[in-house]
Amino acid sequence: MSETTEYRANRSTADAEKWLEEHGDYLYRYACFRMRNAHDAEDAVQETLLAALRSVDRFTGSSTMRTWLVGILNHKIADHFRKTAREKVGAEEDTAITSVDDFFRKDGHLAEADTSWDADPGEILERREFHRQLQECLRMLPDRLFRIFTMREMNNLPAEEICRAAGITESNLWVMLHRSRLQLRRCLERSWFGKAAA
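Above: the chain's sequence. Below: its structure in token form.
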């Protein structure tokens, strides 16, 4: 091994150890919030650090190291969802979906929410408990709805790309996103806003 190659290998090891120490916990929490289980989150963080090592020469410093690593992690999470969506196309039905009728009165008007949505959103989002409850509500979504919702709302993938990966039509995508939002709203009204009102 030449001195240059050995120097690069030592530098890479030092970089990886430094990134893991400074940003590992944050990246892991970030991935856990967006993914279904801890094992997938660990894999995504590991793949992120490996990709960062391979492309560290392209890091220009125009953002912080953490921002750069989170950008890579977002791509790894999106890749994971694309892969799992392709593997499960047609393999599951959207069971356990709340009926749309649950959200409307018999006269066709939208049913009143059990609780108020008037609280300051910034204040609510700052509460750790709310984040934990949101994560729990996301976990309660059926797998396919969870993947679709996460790809669109958390990873900001374009609709066309999600449809391609999941093997669905664009109209089906919007229906699934609507169902996901309704279920999340109902879950949060019961578990979070209901508690806050009590």
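Residues 1-10, 90-98 have pLDDT under 50 and may be disordered.
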